[in-house]
Amino acid sequence: MTAPALVLDDVVKRFGAFAAVDRLSFTVAKGEIYGFLGPNGAGKTTTLRMILEITPPTSGRIEVLGSPSAIKVRRRIGYLPEERGLYRKMRAADTIAYFASLRGVPATEARARALSLLKRFGLGDFARSKNEALSKGMAQKVQLLSTIAHDPELLILDEPFSGLDPINQATLEDLLRELKAAGKTIIFSTHTMQHAERLCDRFLIIAKGGKQFEGTLEEARRLFPPKLVIRTADDIAALRRAPGVVDIVERGGDGASRDYVIELKTGADPNAVLSAAFEAGIRMTRFEHSGASLHDIFVALAGEDASGESEAA
After folding, report:
1. What pTM does this model have?
2. What is the DSSP letter of 242?
3. Would the N or C end of the chain have less CB density within 10 A of its end CB?
4. What does residue 31 show for φ and ψ, rounded to 5 degrees?
């Protein structure tokens, strides 16, 4: 059996009487994309810093790539911190090559990798530009490329999509999928649920320093009642009596037709609602069955801490 890429076992981090991380345990398998989700102040960045031994845990066990110390395997790890920072006077290609060489890549190869990555990400013409002359998005990409230039086995990315426009966000998504296909393990924190929903094999939701959920999107959806969305111009009163219906909420519409969200009991059969509509003569131009979105799951599990997360929508 393949050893996991990362193990946290009952990890605690206290600052005085305050527990920033409280008995957190989870495991990341090699070769998966693992999302680390939580509102501001939930303990995400503190946890990532403990994994990398930037700050020590108060108690608990952390194992990275089979080692009890991330420092011992640091050349096999790529880390993109939330607080971005580049040497302002250094040129873009030199920056990427420099960080690759710090992690053991020979100078000539590091330079070749830097130029190749810049070209691929649309920055080939800026290879000799100083970092201070780059736009925020360009600088963000240079720092990201500096993180992957040494071909790490494990990537830890703290808010990697922050500061990127939609086109570059899509480019980053494609890159992460390619890295996964190459066998890399990727852990990333984010507030943008759409990225996690599209990319993650599994994810962790953390709030107030503690784990609220760990698993796949489908496993999370099974914790929440299914919903239907229908569109009709007819009276839907009969559907309120259909088997398994808990609530029906009107959500606008188009002309005479209105959209309705129908909440069902956990385990209820959506086809029973469809049958009830036919029996009542309700004509529908839309009938969709979907589980809860990751946004809905995040808000429900993170509770009040998530109520102010504007980027989660």
Report:
1. 0.81
2. S
3. N
4. 85, 10
